[in-house]
Design goal:
This protein is mainly α and about 120 residues long. It is built from 5 helices and 3 strands. A 3-stranded antiparallel β-sheet has the order 1-3-2.
Length: about 120
């Protein structure tokens, strides 16, 4: 499991860890029951504080992505991917609603909005 921490972002380190592990689970790279590194091991490999990793793991556990058992470690839980995808879709819908509101008040035609959305969606990062 490879986590990359960037110092060129305003996103806190624990959120970078959380989002990358969530992405690995959602993509299927990490499967239900797969072990994830101990807090100490991950902190050591990333050269960061154990407290930072603990915060990330607490968020992952709260959101249902991992389960931690004392003495056994942390594992990918049998969480509900549909719930996570639904939450992400809701977030995307909020942004799309804002874009539609701006387009309507500015006289931007629907066709142009669809063209822009298609362009952004197909764009590689």
């Amino acid at each position: 499991m490879e986590i990359i921490i960037s110092s060129n972002t305003s996103k806190p380190i624990y959120e970078q860890i959380t989002s990358q592990i969530k992405a690995m689970i959602m993509s299927g790279e990490l499967q239900t029951g797969d072990p994830i590194p101990s807090m100490r091991a991950l902190a050591k490999s990333l050269h960061i504080s154990v407290i930072t990793v603990q915060k990330a793991y607490e968020d992952l556990q709260r959101d249902g992505f991992i389960e931690t058992t004392v003495g056994r470690g942390s594992f990918v839980s049998a969480q509900n991917k549909d719930f996570y995808q639904e939450e992400q879709q809701r977030r995307a819908e909020e942004h799309l609603q804002s874009a539609v509101d701006i387009a309507r008040t500015s006289g931007i035609p629907l066709e142009k909005l669809v063209e822009l959305l298609s362009m952004f969606y197909q764009e590689e990062d």
